[in-house]
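I hope you will forgive my troubling you with a question about protein structure. Here, with my thanks, is the record as I have it:
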Amino acid sequence: MKSFKRRQLVPLLVVVVSFVLAGRVWAQEAPQPFAIMTTAQLQAVVESKPYTFLIIDSRNPEEYQDVHIPGAINIPEKKFDEQAGQLPADKETRLIFYCNGVKCGKSKRSAKKASTLGYRNLFVYEEGMPVWEEAGLPIVPGPGYEAKIETTKISPKDLRQLIASKRQDFVIVDVRDQSEYAEGHIPGAINIPVATFSSRSEELDKEKTIIVYCNAGGRSYKGYRKLMSLAYEKYYQALFADWKAAGFEVEK
């Protein structure tokens, strides 16, 4: 009798395990409830008439007040449930969510929450506010948008010690043009020109400290500001002129 029960139990376990594994595969392959929208696509939508969409800024209120895409309303991702009443009653309305770039998950999480409420025409502008702004497209700036900020700088000596430590938790970014980078740069630095800094931000690990530099500070200041808008947490500014003045090595 025990042998008979055991023979019955084995096929049952196989079925159960197969069902569980199939469920996992399905969960991994389940499509997202939204489509990704490019900068060019969103620009075309914004310029279309009449408006048949709603743009939702999923960032926090301070970021929205500083600068946002024209026509966008602010529903912070963390307060989506309590502020979802701002969404239109028509579930077929095209909703477009954005936040701080390709590594920001707020817009995608908000779109998923909208899906659970029954909205079916969902899009995520993945490149977000930083790339939109970088492309020179229309923005709504706040009163403090042009306010000068004080950057946190790292001295040539400290930067050289950091490089010598061989640590893997930082990235040095030369934001000058490619030709300038080729002529000579700080050892170990990668080149992301400031004009395309936001659109190439996916190359930078948010878990690492980012150090941006240029010759005299103008372009690295812009890169520093872009790191702020991309919601990076650890970043510094350095100056190549100071590095060379200290007599430190230059890599070509």
Observations:
- The longest strand covers residues 209-214.
- Confidence is low (pLDDT under 50) at residues 1-6, 9-27.
- The domain at 35-141 is CATH 3.40.250.10 (Oxidized Rhodanese; domain 1).
- The chain has two domains: 35-141, 156-245.
